[in-house]
Design brief:
Layout: E1 6-7, E2 21-26, E3 34-36, H1 38-44, E4 51-57, E5 59-60
Antiparallel strand pairs: 1-5, 2-3, 2-4
Length: 62
């Protein structure tokens, strides 16, 4: 039997737009992790301190 799908809502910590997929990244020298949308990630991934840490998705199976 398939598990029910859980739907969650989060906004990008940079532009505040709600998105179904967010990326956990470090974008500056502080080392703090932030969740950003695909558009913000594209603008930040060329930075010197950029580090990818995973993908957050709104729809989860558990």
């Amino acid at each position: 039997m398939p598990k029910p799908v859980r739907s969650r809502v989060k906004a990008c910590e940079r532009c505040q737009l709600v998105n179904a997929t967010l990326y956990r990244i470090v974008a500056d020298g502080s080392g703090a992790w932030t969740l950003v949308c695909p558009a913000c990630r594209a603008s930040l991934e060329t930075g010197e301190h950029y580090r990818y840490g995973g993908t957050w998705k709104a729809n989860k199976r558990h």
